[in-house]
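Memo to structure team: turn this sequence into structure tokens by end of day. - J.P.
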Amino acid sequence: MQLFNTYSGQLEEFKPIEENKVKMYVCGPTVYDYAHLGHARCYITWDVLYRYFKFRGYDVTYCRNVTDVDDKILKKAEKEGKTPQEVSQYWYKQFTNSMQKLNNLSPDIEPFATKTLGEMISMVKDLIDKGYAYESNGDVYFRVKKFGRYGSLSGQPIDQLESGARIAVGELKEDPLDFALWKKDEKFGYNSPWGVGRPGWHIECSAMSRKYLGKTIDIHAGGADLIFPHHENEIAQSECANGCKFVNYWLHNGFVTINKEKMSKSLGNFLTIDDMLKNYDANTLRLFILTNHYRMPVEFSDEALSSAQAGAKRLTNAKQTPVNENIDITKTPEYKEFCTAMDEDLNTSKALAVLFDLTTRANKGEKDAYTILYKLGTVLGFTFEKSKLSEEDLINAVNKVSKELGQDFQSMDEIIELRKKARSEKNWEIADKIRISLDEIGIILKDTPDGTKIDIK
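Reply from structure team:
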């Protein structure tokens, strides 16, 4: 399996530290607001990697943290007259619900920053004792220039970083490049050897990763926006504190953009996952994201979502047969083709082509095509439950046909009866108008031995 390692800037063969085991850490959310489509891309991407490792028989430990102590949380708490804990707990629940709606698996370990403070303080003390950090008026800073490889992940030389470095008001640093490991905060802080304060953002992930996965891990993943300074700083403090390599493979997903700009809360151009799911199901959002290679930027548009919606419906509406659990999927050519694609740095676009080919063959009634489709599709997180029409869908359908035919229908039963009559009288104009009107809103009428059934395209 080849993975693109951001640190080396090239594809590398994946070799785990321990045979058949994978230790994987993903930077989790800062819980103070709704998760958006950019978060969906990040966590769907790494959910698929997690699923694929498990599918290939690896024993995976997936750790994704929750940042529940942060400037943004404190500002929201002050604005709303709540405690930081109330804010973070509320938004953590919202985040969890959004992840479940996207059909993302829960990580094996989900540590909270506020529950790992002892480990953070211990790591900061180690860095001070080794001369890599220093206390300054209640703050603690990391000495960047003492770590010779600083800038290696982001490809930014120290002299280039120096030119843009500044010391903010109130900071007492030895060098503008130095970053905070601990911040003085007498209002919302916690007790520490340096007074009341709270951890810097970067030390949180280093401490949680070390506590739950060990000093050296296989994979650390996250969005490309975290490469600098967050992941760069993690490497510096972890390797200096632990005296060994921190991460073997650094993986980063690309941005979701709107009008060529990164989607973010600070720019105010974000679309929340919950809002998106009002118009599109989880399969559609997953297909939209997985159609593109995970390292490339994805441009959001209604056209792209509509195309993904049509593709997702095609998968879901494949002719279903009972799943044959006796099939050894590893001996099928589709398994080999699917894995070859996924082993090419998670080439989900190629993997999807395998699924769509299986969909076509399942619809033709080919034996076991649906079983293989179901098993491979599940690796990408797709669900194969048929979508159900809501009451609102039915009302919209009745209104649409009423408007098209200039008649006031009260129910779908009346429309079905009219269509039946029109067909028997060979009045194809009326029958076609009904079919086209419903087709435009994604609804079809299927004639079966048990009568006419209403279904989603």
